[in-house]
Amino acid sequence: MAVLPEIDVQYAVNFDQQLLPSQEVLERWLMPAFEAHPDETRNEMTVRFVEESESRELNHTYRGKDASTNVLSFPFEAPPGMDIPLLGDLVISPHVVAREAEAQGKTLADHFAHMTLHGCLHLMGYDHIEEDEAEEMEALERRLLASLGIDDPYKDER
């Protein structure tokens, strides 16, 4: 049985607060990922909405890329012998997400949902560096987003 994620939401951004997802919305978006991974016992996470400058700094520091990005995932690795239910942290730049949503003809809410699920799947160990990994992760994203009534975010790329 899936465990409802416990989310610490942090809004460290100058962005229309009405357009940012609430904790309840984030929980609804993330629940399908946890339902798809019923053995996942790590259910605590932080979702932090940040300015592009913070996104850029983190992306540069941890990924060597000197640009802001839509979402960064920081999985938590517990020290040996410690059972801590922390999954990790997501850092989302709403300004980047909004630009991408507009450029891709998606609603802001749908793109936020996609980036939130995408980041969560990274926390759960998924990646998209290799083609087979990307296909697996994108297929799961499509299925999870469809369960929320959201169209395939990759349909225009195929």
Automatic annotation (TrEMBL):
Classification via InterPro entries: MetalPrtase_cat_dom_sf_prd (IPR023091), YbeY (IPR002036), YbeY_CS (IPR020549)
Binding site for Zn(2+): 118, 122, 128
Transmembrane segments: none
Keyword field contains Zinc: yes
GO molecular function, one term: RNA endonuclease activity
Listed GO biological process terms: rRNA processing
Subcellular location(s) per record: Cytoplasm
EC code: 3.1.-.-
A Pfam match: YbeY
Enzyme class per UniProt: hydrolase
Cofactor-binding details, from the entry: Binds 1 zinc ion.
Keywords associated with the record: Cytoplasm, Endonuclease, Hydrolase, Metal-binding, Nuclease, Ribosome biogenesis, rRNA processing, Zinc
GO cellular component: cytoplasm
Needed cofactors: Zn(2+)
Superkingdom classification of source: Bacteria
SUPFAM superfamilies reported in the protein's UniProt record: Metalloproteases ('zincins'), catalytic domain (SSF55486)
Similarity comment text for this entry: Belongs to the endoribonuclease YbeY family.
NCBIfam families linked to this entry: rRNA maturation RNase YbeY
Function as written in the Swiss-Prot or TrEMBL entry: Single strand-specific metallo-endoribonuclease involved in late-stage 70S ribosome quality control and in maturation of the 3' terminus of the 16S rRNA.
Protein name: Endoribonuclease YbeY
Organism: Zymobacter palmae
Gene name per UniProt: ybeY
